[in-house]
Amino acid sequence: MALWDKLKAELIDIVQWLDDTNDTLIYRFPRYNNEIKNGAKLVVREGQAAVFINEGQIADVFKPGTYDLTTQNLPILATLKGWKYGFESPFKAEVYFVSTRQFTNLKWGTPGPCTMRDPEFGAVRVTAFGIYSIKIKDPAIFIREIAGTDGEFSTDEIQDNLKGKIGMRIKEVMPELQIPVIDLESKVFTMGEMLKERIAPAFEGLGIALTEVQVQDVGLPEEVERAIDKAGAMRAIGNMQMYTQYETANSINDAANNPGGLAAAGVGIGMGFGMGGQMGNAMGGAFTNMVQQPGIASGFSGGAAQPPPVPGPPPLPLLNLFVAMNGQQAGPFEAPALQQMVMSGQLTRETLVWKQGMASWAAAGTVAELAQVFGAVPPPMPPA
Asked: Is residue 140 a contact partner of residue 51, using CB atoms and an 8 Å limit?
């Protein structure tokens, strides 16, 4: 009797999995050398599936519920085992529990910048990152294609693979979205939905459902961010002349904080020229108004008419120009900065430039608005 009790103890009569982790995708039931008793109970909880594998071949798949393991409930395994008339003896089979719940907060990111064509800024290199969620949709395909015979398969083992797939796919998809780069950050929800729709079919081939894609941030080049900030400031100020004076004052202040640098001194001179012309115009207009008022005019010379003041040079035009430097675009620059670049030799008539409204990049010497900038710079000194 004791021998029979010992043999009964070797038989498994309840097959179940209580998951106390938050990252396990697949768990192999620890049968070892034990055998599953005929008529044993299989308990599959919500958020789980149970897969029976016989000699490396996937047999039966069970959804949530409680089952008595008999030939009626194991039709494929019964066929593989050759149980034509039912079985009374214990049997051996590997049982894999698969977690079918959602796994969230998995991180993705583009492995490098992707190039997008923008109607306002031209070709722009953009990066993005966020999180995504998955769940196992087809346990049999997932075991066959991904997990194999791994007895305990977690999200860490697949996350790098999925992160690479989603990152590379997003690099391909983002240029196809046709969303202007200035609107990307305000369209992150729309981007996430579009990316999920485009990428989900590739995940289904692995037995995985892509349930959510979130775009948390979009990275733009610094020069594009500066251009966006400057455009917003111009719209907020509304007065181009006041904005130019504000920019000029800031540039001179920055140059004054670095008095030892030749570039700072040059920028100060260039900005000073532009600001001086504007101040001269303003003071000249004020003086003219004073002369035109009889009471004020007589205070200067007994009522005699005074000759009109000599007008100063007109202010340099606002260009907002991009310049090709060392094979890359820089800018945008306004007239005072461009004038300093001409003086330092960084900008010549052959340098390629572009601004909004131009069909393509062109030599600076062919842009009419730069004639005044080139004309305001004296020619080089003759040799001694």
From this structure: yes
